[in-house]
Amino acid sequence: MAESNTDNSQHLLVTRNLQVEDYDRLVQVMKKCYPMMKGDIWFKSQIQKLINIFPEGQLCVEDNGEVVAFALSIIVDYSKFGDSHSYEQIIDNSNFGTHDSSGDVLYGIDVCVDPEYQGMRLGRRLYDSRKELCENLNLRSIVAGGRIPNYHKYSDEYTPKEYIQKVREKEIYDPVLYFQMSNDFHVRKILKNYIPYDKASGSYAVLIEWNNIYFDEEEKLVGAKKTSARIGVVQWQLRSVRSLQSFFENVEFFVDAVSGYQADFLVFPELFNAPLMAEFNEDNAAKAIRKLAQYSDEIRDKMVEYALSYNINIIAGSVPVYEDEKLYNVSYLCRRDGSYEAQYKIHVTPAERSDWGMAGGSDIKVFETDTAKIGILICYDSEFPELCRILADQGMEILFVPFATDMHNGFHRVKVCSQARAIENECYVVISGSVGNLPKVKNMDIQFGQSAVFSPSDFAFPQNAIVAEGTPNTENTIIADVDLNDLKHLHNNGSVRNLKDRRKDLYDIKIKI
């Protein structure tokens, strides 16, 4: 019954290190990106050398196995160059003898995105990977000479300095400079004759820099792995919507806002598409929710699209799914690489069974993501401790609980049980609920909720085991960071060790199917 997809999605994006076998595709992308710049196509031998001397710094994004964007970089001792240098000096006339693994600055020497993929934020995806690499290698900053490709349109009217100011003030649009400023880079200086044959930029470039706030003068952390996750939680206001498009506009607002904080995960509540059920208000509840299920595939596909475009893993609340003449409550994990998987609600409530004729699923599993191993339990499922223990035994680090509760007592059950799951399974638990009301929509007319991120209870975690929580019964968003290394330490060195200290000689939990 569990659903998995890697091939049916229109896009399947993967960020990875560049390989020399990608060269032919790189040439195609460069020719599309640099139509006004002759002589700016890298030779295969140059790409091979970059991969040999600094493989971590050569990044690409592929879509269904085909490279559609790439970024090249080297490490330099910036004191040898200062702020007055040319592109050829940095790349040592394409010999890259300037690369210094003990240097202090990650220097970006090229970024290309296939124009057909504009709007999918692949450039930001590559820049985020560069930033993570800069932090992992404990480098002082990222520096690059940024082109100003629209300057040739205004060179008779403005000096480069005036042009940059106009771009800052949003009076002129420059795709490269605007993008860099939007990604937290600041301008250090204007460089003359940086790339002499860059006629579009008038041979000028803008020296830009992103500072690594975690840079440690004393310690060199080479190749450290990511040990934290940033989580966005939507406390969703149920409101009437005019159409499916209007619903998507509300959803995209939160995806856009949370992804702007470079979050790894975003979670919506259970049945967050319930406002669309008002369209079928004249039908009885069972017919209405089955008609609502007609939208579920389109909603799932749109959430996959958002996950790709905004580079964030989305737990798409839950939606009703009608298949094999049965109605299920299903949560989709939409990964930022374009794949998705489904978790069916295992336990349906008495009201879901009697009013909607809903059936329970039969598969429970841990999902791999690029940040952490996660589990999903929909609302009532969080009140059955066996399910979370099964997930914990499979290595789950973060449990997501989309919920929908009408009254305070129902919310209290979900909250208390979720807190218990975090403590007894030594994991983080994230709950996301709806608030407000939907007149004339049976079972979803009144909502009470307060979203939160819960932690285990030990010295490394908040004293009350609550990482963050929203304002009750008000639409808002939580952004919270959780440390995955703290979980590993807890498993082995905690004050109590719930997972290790179980008496398996007396009892155990197993899946029958």
Automatic annotation (TrEMBL):
Assigned keywords, A-Z: Hydrolase
Q: Which residues form a coiled coil?
A: none
Record bears the keyword Hydrolase: yes
Q: Which InterPro entries match?
A: Acyl_CoA_acyltransferase, C-N_Hydrolase, C-N_Hydrolase_sf, GNAT_dom
Q: Which GO terms describe its molecular function?
A: acyltransferase activity, transferring groups other than amino-acyl groups; hydrolase activity
All residue ranges annotated as the N-acetyltransferase domain in the record:
13-175
Q: Which residues form the CN hydrolase domain?
A: 229-484
Q: Which Pfam families does this UniProt record tie to the protein?
A: Acetyltransf_1, CN_hydrolase
PANTHER family given in the database record: HYDROLASE YHCX (PTHR23088:SF50), NITRILASE-RELATED (PTHR23088)
Q: What is this protein called?
A: Bifunctional GNAT family N-acetyltransferase/carbon-nitrogen hydrolase family protein
Organism for this UniProt entry: Fulvivirga marina
